Amino acid sequence: MSAVQPPSSRVSDRQPSTLEGWLERLEQQHPVSIDLGLERVAKVAARLGLSKAGSLNPVPARIATKVITVAGTNGKGSTAAMLDALARAHGLSTATYTSPHLLRYNERLRFDGEEASDAILIEGFARVEAARLEDEPVSLTYFEAGTLAGLWSIAQRQPDIAILEVGLGGRLDAVNVIDADVGVVTTVAQDHAAFLGTDLEGIGREKAGILRAGRPAVLGSASLPESVHDTAARLGAQVHCLAQDFTQSADTDGWCWQGHDAEGESLALTTLPDPGLPLDNAASALQALALAGVTLEAEACKRALREVVLAGRMQWRGNWCLDVGHNPHAAAYLAERLSQRPCAGRRVALLGMLADKDAEGVVTALDQAVDAWVPASLGGDRARPAGDLAELIRSLGGEVLSLADSPAAGAAWLEAHLEAADQVLVCGSFFTVAEVLARWESSADDPSPQA
């Protein structure tokens, strides 16, 4: 397998010398933050050696022995995290590219579970900058440039397994410039309506755009739109559906999984530990790895599921739970998991959401699991003011304890007013969770130690 060749050494003038400088530059170089489509990305990918140009449909190069791409409305991050943990537990080298990040951009690119260094990221950005300026310059969004830099960095290392999480949609997402050996679609629900619309069939068609002809497709929900199945059938993908071709079910000492390997032989694992993440996603991760040719070993799987950690997804710190869920589907799962963890006092939700999200659906889904609310304003053009959230919560019969100018201010208020038996749920957005985590990270006196 030949390594991906680097682009021309010519780079633009005045390149940043720090990661912060590069990120600031990337944010300013394209007129819009989201610009779906693969034409510009594919052109730069070819210059980087990530695809073989010369045809209307360039052939992506190999960036890893096997590539697993994960798309879906919810569950992408947890599926990717479990894929990585499971692969490493089997002694395989891994690379993961995910988005967004919570505290550091470095979280987006990991090798063997470790965040990429600033130096690795800077080199990737410099290579992409050189490639996009070759011949006729190509404009890239922040996400597109970051994705290409991540893919180039992965290709230099040629890991056993590369796990790529789609950022938005699927078919036109920059990640989709690379062909997946195994495609995973976790769930399909309404989110990012401004870009993907509100029609679930249309959204499903976009998510299924990561699937490839003749290659395995893992469909990780029993209630996906017909468009996902239709797309897989049209492509001739090897479909493996949750609840039909692979299953997860309760066991006396945990849960059990049944599925198939790449040759179609039946597989089974029993007494698996609860990873604290959705079991449908755990089952999908196991099936995807098996289809990627990994021989699943029971003890390795158990060890991985016991040890997997994903920041911001049902993450407990003492009596505080942090979850980035920001749509009704994610909120319903969160409420179900919270109902399984008794609270002797009151459970208060610190909620901050963007204006383009379904706040009514989220509040309604969490209603039975939450006793009172502290709405918080987020920054930026897409932010929803705390006052608007409070008005919505009250109209739905909820109790608002206080309004906060920011998630950090809301956390400070709660720290001063909580009883020992109370619980706090921090939710509604990556921005909400990130700000509270950043507050704790910068504080010498973390009020909510790790449980």
From TrEMBL:
Positions in coiled-coil regions: none
Transmembrane segments: none
All residue ranges annotated as the Mur ligase C-terminal domain in the record: 312-430
GO CC, alphabetical: cytoplasm
EC number(s) recorded for this UniProt protein: 6.3.2.12, 6.3.2.17
Molecular function via GO: ATP binding; dihydrofolate synthase activity; metal ion binding; tetrahydrofolylpolyglutamate synthase activity
A Pfam family annotated for this UniProt entry: Mur_ligase_C
Lineage: Bacteria, Pseudomonadati, Pseudomonadota, Gammaproteobacteria, Oceanospirillales
Pathway(s) annotated for this protein in UniProt: Cofactor biosynthesis; tetrahydrofolylpolyglutamate biosynthesis; Cofactor biosynthesis; tetrahydrofolate biosynthesis; 7,8-dihydrofolate from 2-amino-4-hydroxy-6-hydroxymethyl-7,8-dihydropteridine diphosphate and 4-aminobenzoate: step 2/2
Reactions it catalyzes: 7,8-dihydropteroate + L-glutamate + ATP = 7,8-dihydrofolate + ADP + phosphate + H(+); (6R)-5,10-methylenetetrahydrofolyl-(gamma-L-Glu)(n) + L-glutamate + ATP = (6R)-5,10-methylenetetrahydrofolyl-(gamma-L-Glu)(n+1) + ADP + phosphate + H(+); 10-formyltetrahydrofolyl-(gamma-L-Glu)(n) + L-glutamate + ATP = 10-formyltetrahydrofolyl-(gamma-L-Glu)(n+1) + ADP + phosphate + H(+); (6S)-5,6,7,8-tetrahydrofolyl-(gamma-L-Glu)(n) + L-glutamate + ATP = (6S)-5,6,7,8-tetrahydrofolyl-(gamma-L-Glu)(n+1) + ADP + phosphate + H(+)
Name used for this protein in its record: Dihydrofolate synthase/folylpolyglutamate synthase
SUPFAM superfamilies referenced in this protein's UniProt entry, alphabetically: MurD-like peptide ligases, catalytic domain, MurD-like peptide ligases, peptide-binding domain
Cited PANTHER family: DIHYDROFOLATE SYNTHETASE-RELATED, FOLYLPOLYGLUTAMATE SYNTHASE-RELATED
Similarity section: Belongs to the folylpolyglutamate synthase family.
GO BP, sorted A to Z: folic acid biosynthetic process; tetrahydrofolate biosynthetic process
Domain Mur ligase central: 70-212
